[in-house]
Every structure is written in structure tokens, then in C-alpha cells.
Amino acid sequence: MVACSTWLVVKDVLLVMAALAGAVIGALGLTTWWRQLSGQADFDLARRIVRAAIGFREGIRDVRNNMIWSEEMFAAIKELGLPSEASPTSAGQARGVAAAYQVRWKRLADAYRSLGADAVEAEALWDVDLRPLLIPLHHLKTELLNALQEYTREDPARRTDTADFKRIRDMMSQRGDDEFDRQVVAAVDEIVAAVRPYLPRRRFRWSVGASRRRSTAKPC
Questions:
Q1: How many helices (H) and strands (E) does the chain have?
Q2: pTM for the predicted model, two decimal places
Q3: CB 194 within 8 Å of CB 128
Q4: CB 56 within 8 A of CB 115
């Protein structure tokens, strides 16, 4: 009888211990799952920011590339839903160039907007304010937009050999590693450096400033 009572006590103790072990294992598993989920969220956000920053850098370079082929003009006109002309004219070519630049600029603007939205999410998720790092990008984008608007104005009087238009023409015809491009790369690299801690080393081993396209296109 005593042996039976002892067995029942031992059995109850074992059941309690098993329940406690299951609870501990479940808590550890939940903690691990939460850490993995949090780490994945950090990685996804950091990757989006890096991708948008690179998209901004390449968008700047695309806008500054003054080589525009007729295929790009036709594709831009179609994308924007503009009427196309049956036979090429100087006015039609000017509209095609403007349409191509408009599409290029849209890609640049989309990358900048994505950076702005992700910067807000970074502040909420990481308590890190990335918005001051976007200020140089905004200034560079504004400077390029002003040059683009002057460059594409349908005013032959503006396309003269004045110092002002030479500056605009230089801005709109990137020649490899120039001063404006270096400013863009430096600003983008600062953003990447800020989010680098949230990217695993094995997945991120390069600097966005290392890749530079060199354009040898002559001004149009």
C-alpha cells in the first residue's frame, strides 16, 4: 500500500516536471521564433533601404546620361500615354527626349520616396532617425531637377555658349567620376553605413560606392 502511494506521488511529480519542461521548451521556442522574426524584419527593412539608396544613385546617373536612343523615346511616349507621330520631326524628337527624361526622373523620384517611407519605419523599428541623411540627397535631387528643366526647355536662345548653359550641360552629361557623382556616392554610402549593422555580414560584403558606371556619351 505504501509502495502504491509512493508511486502515485512520484507519478504526479513526474507529470508536473514534464509539464514544466514542456512550458520551458515552448517559451524558449517562442523566444527563438520571436528573435528570428525580429531579425528578419530588421534585415528586410535594411535591404529595402539599401536597394532604394542604390536606386537613387543609379537614377541620378540615368538622368545625367544624355545618350537617348529612339527606342527609349518611343517606349517613354508609350508609357506616358502621349500621342506618337508617324514621321520624325525636330519638335517630335524634342517631345521624345522630354518623355524619356520624364520616365527616368520618375524612377529617381520613386527611389527617393521609398527612402523617405523606409526612414520613418526605421525610426519606429530601430529608434534611429535616418531623415537627416536624406537632406543631402534632397539638395542633389533639386539641383539636378533645376538643371534638367533648363536643359530641356524648348528655347533655342538658351542653348548658347554661355557659362551658365555650359554648367547646365556639364550637369546633364556625366563624364565618369565627376564632382557631382562623388557627392551622390558619398551621401548614399552614409545611408548604407547607418543600416549596415542590421545586415548580416555574410549577406553584405561590398560598398555601394565601389560600383561606378563611366559614361563616355557626348552631349546632344
A1: 6, 0
A2: 0.71
A3: yes
A4: yes
- Extents of the domains making up the chain: 2-210
Residue 209's contacts (CB-CB under 8 Å, 6 or more residues apart) are 185, 186, 188, 189
Instruction: Tell me how far apart the terminal alpha carbons of the chain are, to the nearest angstrom.
Output: 105
**Cell reading at 130:** 535616418
Judge contact between 169 and 220, C-beta under 8 A.
Answer: no
| 77-125 per-position pLDDT tens digit | 888 888 876 545 666 677 888 899 999 999 999 999 999 999 999 999 8
Q: Is 20 exposed, middle or buried (0-12, 13-18, 19+ CB in 10 A)?
A: exposed
The whole-angstrom distance between residue 30's C-alpha and the CA centroid of its chain comes to: 33
